[in-house]
Amino acid sequence: MFRFAHPELLYLLLVIPLLIVFYIVMRSRKKKAIAEFGNPELLAPLMPLLSFKRGAWKFTMILLALLFVIVGVAGPQFGSKLQQVKKKGVELMLVLDVSNSMMAQDIKPSRLEKAKLAISRMIEKLSDDKVGMIVFAGDAYVQLPITTDYSSARLFLSGINTDIVPVQGTAIGTAIDLAAKSFTPETQTSKAIIVITDGENHQDDAVAAAKAARKKGIYVHTIGMGLEQGAPIPQKGNPGQFMKDGQGNVVVSKLDEETLKKIAKAGEGMYVRASNTDVGLNTLLEEVNRMEKSLLEERVYSDYAEKYQYFLLVGLFFVFVEFMILGRKNRHFMKIHIFNSEQKKKDI
User: How many C-beta neighbours within 10 Å does residue 142 have?
Assistant: First the structure.
């Protein structure tokens, strides 16, 4: 079998007929210019070094070089062989809190932005594992279905903000239930949920949700976003202003660490508290990597051998030949008449 890695580059071959037309026109003009001075045969002794044949050969070499270089750059690939690829890993659902309290800046630049940065770095370290994302506040939504497409994961992650969920609150239990339903059905793959939240003002039974997930064979880990002293929540669109309660007091968001520890215990997972230096996803990733990895995917695909280098070498060869062909006759070689016996006698 044969194919090109970049077939669109083959359109550059259309330049070759244009160059041929251009060369024919210029050669015709040159002959006409000489003819204006007189009969070309009579003028030939006055131009002993002129050679139209050499010009034609040089032009031919340039065209051949261009042809092979363009074909080589297009990436010709020959032959094919079937290869079987097996991927082993785990399925991982990242459950991210996007409530307003995640905009608190006790963890810089904010709890939410720090979590997003840590998730992005963790995705870069994944190899054959599947990953999905759930966002939640007062309700939960699937942001990214379970996949091995890490580029899409980073793309969806970049669009996460506190406006992505219309209902405010902290429905951790709802988010865990949705995550447990979002794994690949009917597989024996090891599964884990990582909940990233400050845990504040939770409105449902998250501990019961973690227990239910564990009964399905899913581990539930938690990461606490926030420091002990807490921080005020910035107002959207009003830099330097903070949210206030009904009495006009500034609302201070604090990490509910005890709840998150209970959730992790119920899900037989691990609890990690984030800080300004480390969110804790790397620690949990090490824990996930210790889980038994099972066969996630088995594919058979064709592998083609790259042969572009041969075309480029031939192209360089024609460039070298063109360089070696002089545009004019060599005056020294003209004195040599190997097959002219009369000239030999005169020289003697």
Answer: 15
- Give the list of residues 6+ apart from residue 10 with CB closer than 8 angstroms, or none: 4, 70, 71, 74
In angstroms, the CA 113 to CA 95 distance is: 14
Distance separating alpha carbons of residues 199 and 206, to the nearest angstrom: 10
Distance, first Cα to last Cα, the chain:
64
Return the structure tokens found at 36. Answer: 């204006």
Report the distance separating Cα 54 and Cα 93, nearest Å. 71
pTM for the full model? 0.63
Q: Tens of pLDDT along 124-154?
A: 888 888 999 999 999 999 999 999 899 999 9
Q: Which of 296, 285, 291, 292 is nearest to 120 (CA)?
A: 285
Do residues 211 and 269 touch, judged by C-beta distance below 8 A? Answer: no
Q: How many CA atoms lie within 13 A of 83 on its CB side?
A: 9
Q: What is the dihedral of CA 97, 101, 107, 110, to 10 degrees?
A: 80
Amino acid at 223: I
Whose tokens are 């009003």? That residue is 238
Cis-peptide into 109, omega within 30 deg: yes
Residue type at 264 in one-letter notation: A
**Tokens 């998150």 sit on residue:** 260
